[in-house]
Amino acid sequence: MLKKEYSKDLSKLNTFGMKVTARYFYEYDSLADLLDLDFEELVGPVKHIGGGSNLLFTGDFKGTILHSAIRFTEVLSESSDEVLVSVGSGVVFDDFCAWAASKGLWGAENLSLIPGEVGASAVQNIGAYGVEVKDIIRTVFCYDTQEEEMVRFEVSDCAYEYRDSFFKHADGRYIVTHVVFALQKGYSPKLDYGNIRAALGLAPDSDTDRASLTPQQVRDAIIRIRREKLPEPGKVGSAGSFFKNPVVPRSKYEEVCASVPADTKVPHYEVGDMIKIPAGWLIEQCGWKGKRSGNAGVWDKQALVLVNATGQALPEEIVRLENKIIVSVRDRFGIELSPEVEHL
Ligand SMILES: Cc1cc2nc3c(=O)[nH]c(=O)nc-3n(C[C@H](O)[C@H](O)[C@H](O)COP(=O)(O)OP(=O)(O)OC[C@H]3O[C@@H](n4cnc5c(N)ncnc54)[C@H](O)[C@@H]3O)c2cc1C
Predict the structure, then answer these.
(1) 3-state class of 271 per DSSP?
(2) Which of 67, 135, 207, 267 suits a disulfide with 27, CB 3.0-4.6 Å?
């Protein structure tokens, strides 16, 4: 069925909870309905969204919003060590993680509770706790709106990088309809990132092979960790990490080290010859953690997350706070932050 709405309220379709509308909103629940759409006739701009958890609507959307309600989870094949599962783009990604854990299958558990839908997961290459979705994607099926035909991309065709993919640079040409994931039957927990071991009650150097965990136990631990750190969509509006972590030359990193007290360690990761510095740390150093600016604010447990603090924030209040933070970090460290969240 194709559902068409005019002047659609999008407040439940973006996790920031912005009270904005779309001039036209089309939701389809089958491939046939999507293929029936005449893209030339749609009022532009045309944007396909998922759960709106990486988006900031900066005002009412003047064109057409598309949304997938293709929801199925189907086992395609099973070998002695692997299960291939096809999942519709409109399935909530965490529902898929819950399904995998309930079947005792490994691979998706570290990605538990990341907001959003399966279609966007393949566009965004979502990641958390040492796993990226590309690690479990086998094939991405799309509708090519230009050639008006279905196309399939093997994982190696998708140019996956950190939170990036070929799809992100295709200007909306490809609509993900379903994704085939490869899940593992064999014991394969990934516990070396952050505090997963501690959350499971394991010693830092414990022998993972002997831990005899289940995917469900790891999933539960990840959910506990995330709930402690991140605002829960539906309760506090946000789009998760608002800024990208800047990657700077080593000389800039050394400048940052020299600008903070000698006993302050600057967190960093080597990326080839460059250094990545967590944006949340830079923002925190500028005193923004937990601060409010009108109805917008910076999350008190993680400075990388901007929030709709009162539930009443207007898009311009979030943008104003974003700009203030960019200026602070630039003035203090000479580093330019850029948003991770897509502005529409
Ligand atoms: C509290 C919170 C925590 C978060 N934590 C993480 C995290 O740990 N790791 C992480 O990686 N991300 C995280 N995010 C960001 C977000 O969850 C991901 O980017 C997610 O993939 C967005 O999914 P969505 O369905 O909401 O997509 P949307 O935000 O609606 O869209 C994202 C992009 O995907 C495109 N898109 C959506 N559906 C399709 C489709 N079917 N076909 C083609 N293009 C499509 C859109 O056009 C847009 O460009 C977090 C967000 C929040 C709010």
Answers:
(1) strand
(2) 67
Atom of ligand 1 nearest to the CA of 119: 41
| 107 phi/psi in degrees, rounded to 5 | 135, -40
Alpha-helical (H) ranges within 9-85 are 31-36
Pocket-testing residue among 114, 162, 222, 301, ligand 1, by greatest number of atoms within 8 A of Cβ: 114
Alpha carbon of 243 to ligand 1 centroid (Å): 14
* 51 C-beta closer than 6 A to ligand 1: yes
Q: Confirm or reject: Cβ of 49 under 6 Å from ligand 1.
A: yes
Concerning whether 254 is annotated as a catalytic residue, the answer is no
CA-atom Rg of the chain in angstroms: 21
Q: What sign does the dihedral 111-112-115-120 (CA atoms) show?
A: positive
Query: Which of 112, 241, 317, 322 does the annotation list as catalytic?
Result: 241
Instruction: Kindly report the pTM of this predicted structure.
Output: 0.94
Ligand 1, atom 27, lies closest to the CA of 50
User: All domains of the chain, ordered by start, with CATH?
Assistant: 2-68 (3.30.43.10), 73-229 (3.30.465.10), 237-343 (3.90.78.10)
Pocket test for ligand 1, best of 16, 123, 196 (most atoms within 8 A of CB): 123
Task: Output the tens digit of pLDDT for each of the chain's 344 residues.
Answer: 999 999 999 999 999 999 999 999 999 999 999 999 999 999 999 999 999 999 999 999 999 999 999 999 999 999 999 999 999 999 999 999 999 999 999 999 999 999 999 999 999 999 999 899 999 999 999 999 999 999 999 999 999 998 999 999 999 999 999 999 999 999 999 998 888 999 988 887 777 666 689 999 999 999 999 998 899 888 999 999 999 999 999 999 999 999 999 899 999 988 889 999 999 999 999 999 999 999 999 999 999 999 999 999 999 999 999 999 999 999 999 999 999 999 99
Q: Give φ, ψ of 223 to 5 degrees.
A: -60, -40
DSSP 191-234: --STTHHHHTT--TT--GGGS---HHHHHHHHHHHHHHHSPPTT
DSSP, res 43: P
